Amino acid sequence: MKLRSSLHAMRQCTGPIALAAGFFDGVHIGHVRVIRKTIAAAHALDGEAWILTFDTHPRRVVNPAGAPALLTSNEHRFMILERLGLDGCLVLPFSRRFARLSAHAFVKSLAGSCPGLRRVLVGTNWRFGRGRAGNTDLLARLGLRFGYSVDIVPPSMWNGQVVSSTRVRSSVLNGRLHEAAAMLGRPFSVLGRVTRGRGIGRKLGFPTANLETGAEVLPPQGVYAVRVLVGRTWHDGIVNIGVRPTFHRLGAPLAVHLEAHLFNTSRRLYGRMMEVFFLRRIRAEQTFPDHRSLARQIRKDVRLAASLLRNCKPLKKDKESLYRDKMPVYSRPRINK
């Protein structure tokens, strides 16, 4: 997937372009619907499918106090979008100056810089321009002037309500992972780089990969059964999210850590990027009286997680599931403890 960071750079794209516009935080099934229709439109034009998005959430510029915590980092968001089969992504810097641009001026600049623009696809509530004055009606009217048509994609529904990043965020933060998976079309995941830790897990017989994610949204603290993607290789494992109370040093800050123990692997992972998919919460984080007690509990966690992962059932493979042709995804498993 090609990445461009300015409208001027789009002048190189002279062939027909179908363009989806939005921020796409989390890339949930509503976003996937828009993108799949964009890809289909591009095929009909014998052209390319692109998205228009921003490097930071607009509310972080115009209303920082009301800005949401993000489900995906930029790197993670672009990785997921690339998996969908897009040809390119236009990532515009969102600044106070950009926020003052009128809706008409924005569309004029976009159309003038993208000579191949033929179709624009957006959700029903998409807004643009200064004060969010631009709506889908204005976008369509301007399309008559600038030579593109507009497709308004209706929202996706789940459990009787519109799927949104806000709903997904609430489900993750409250530990309702099966709900988040249904709305995302895949299990909730975080992306991060493996860094060196204190080596405590290795001493206990369960070496862990310490993940530096910068994630703004995480499930509640505790131990989880997970599937982990490193490069193109899948691993089953467990993850602990928490402050490591058993080993907390008196006076040290209570920072939240994410540590993954992968089953049946001895690979050196330092410096590697890792995507962790959360399948099921096993237990809350606990304080143990000594190392042996913790090691006994980890052995129990590993056995339970392995059983859970063996018994996970595939999500319904509908047209809005992101990974339906790429890899297995899982719904809420049922096992006897």
CATH superfamily of the largest domain: HUPs
Largest sheet: 6 strands, parallel
CATH class designation of the largest domain: Alpha Beta
Tally of separate helices? 10
Computed over alpha carbons, the radius of gyration is 22 Å
Taking strands numbered 1, 2, ... along the chain, how are they ordered across the largest sheet? 1-4-3-2-5-6
> Roughly how much helix do the residues carry, as a percent range?
25-40%
**Spatial shape:** elongated
Q: Pairing-aware structural class of the strands and helices?
A: alpha/beta
Note the run of SSEs as H and E.
Answer: EEHEHHEHHEHEEEHHEHEEEEEH
What are the key terms here?
337 residues; alpha/beta; Rossmann fold; Elongation Factor Tu (Ef-tu), domain 3; 2 domains; six-stranded parallel beta sheet; six-stranded antiparallel β-barrel; 29% helix; 25% strand
